[in-house]
Amino acid sequence: MAKKKNAGSRSSGTAAEAAPAAAEQTAEAPESEVQTEPAIETVSGEELEKLRSEYAALKDQYQRLAAEFDNFRKRTEKEKVATFDNAVSTIIEAFLPVADNFALALSSCDDAGEEFRKGLEMIRKQLDNAFKQLNVEEFGERGEEFDPMLHNAISRIEDPELEEGFIASVYQKGFRIGDKIIRHATVQVTGGV
What we know:
- This protein is of the alpha+beta class.
- The protein has one domain (about 45-190): Nucleotide Exchange Factor Grpe, Chain A, domain 2, CATH 2.30.22.10.
- The chain is built from four helices and six strands.
- It has helices at about 1-10, 15-25, 45-105, 115-135; strands at about 135-140, 150-155, 165-170, 175, 180-185, 185-190.
- Strand 4 (about 175) and strand 5 form a beta hairpin.
- The radius of gyration is 43 Å and the shape is elongated.
């Protein structure tokens, strides 16, 4: 009777008592029921060479794909910069006549009062800063060497202060953004006629 009572107390025991009992049953399970990893198959030399060639082909394909993507990324970045430069160039072209007229007004206001001239110079400085923020450079100064890729020569003149092939005077400043010329400088060049 004691055995029955003991067995009954096991079945009506708590979960904490049941867990060690389950662990004992698992530990005592026969080895045939325990799952093991499948054995690694041996690969023949032919199959190994086939796998190596497949690996080499996939590696080559991956490297080509990575190189193509890198080229695409670089090309897209270049196109993005070129698109921005073209947009800025178009906008600056629309403002250049205003900038030219403003420069003429500034150069001809010698008779105006000092305060008026100071105001015009401040506005000119703001305009120059706006161009600088957009990476727009102004070029074409007296004394620069003439470059037909940047300057448009409208005449030649003798100038004892400058050697031949230099800019004697500037009629219109040139502007560029990066390598893109927005407007060529219109200049007079030194040299024989």
